[in-house]
């Protein structure tokens, strides 16, 4: 269970880092620039992974 916890914490850190990268890209290149959109899509994917990991942790806790 500790490994799962660390996994979600790692994802949280990656999400925050990616969020900052996306914000900076938006400031430099504009919100509709291709690079900003790419960073936004990467952020979306990380958030989906985080939500999935949280669900798996909850399901594992309920089963255990």
Key structural traits:
Spo0E-like, Spo0E family sporulation regulatory protein-aspartic acid phosphatase, 64 residues, 2 helices, 91% helix, Spo0E-like_sf, mainly alpha, MYOD Basic-Helix-Loop-Helix Domain, subunit B
* Protein structure class: mainly alpha
| CATH third-level topology | MYOD Basic-Helix-Loop-Helix Domain, subunit B
Report the CATH C-level class.
Answer: Few Secondary Structures
CATH architecture: Irregular
Radius of gyration: 15 Å
- What sequence of helices (H) and strands (E) makes up the elements? HH
| Residue-averaged pLDDT | 89
Amino- and carboxy-terminal Cα gap: 10 Å
Poorly predicted parts: none
Number of discrete helical segments: 2
Oligomerization:
single chain
The count of strands amounts to 0
Shape estimate = elongated
- How would a textbook summarize the main sheet? none
Number of structural units classed as domains: 1
The share of residues in helices is over 70%
- Strand residues, percent: under 5%
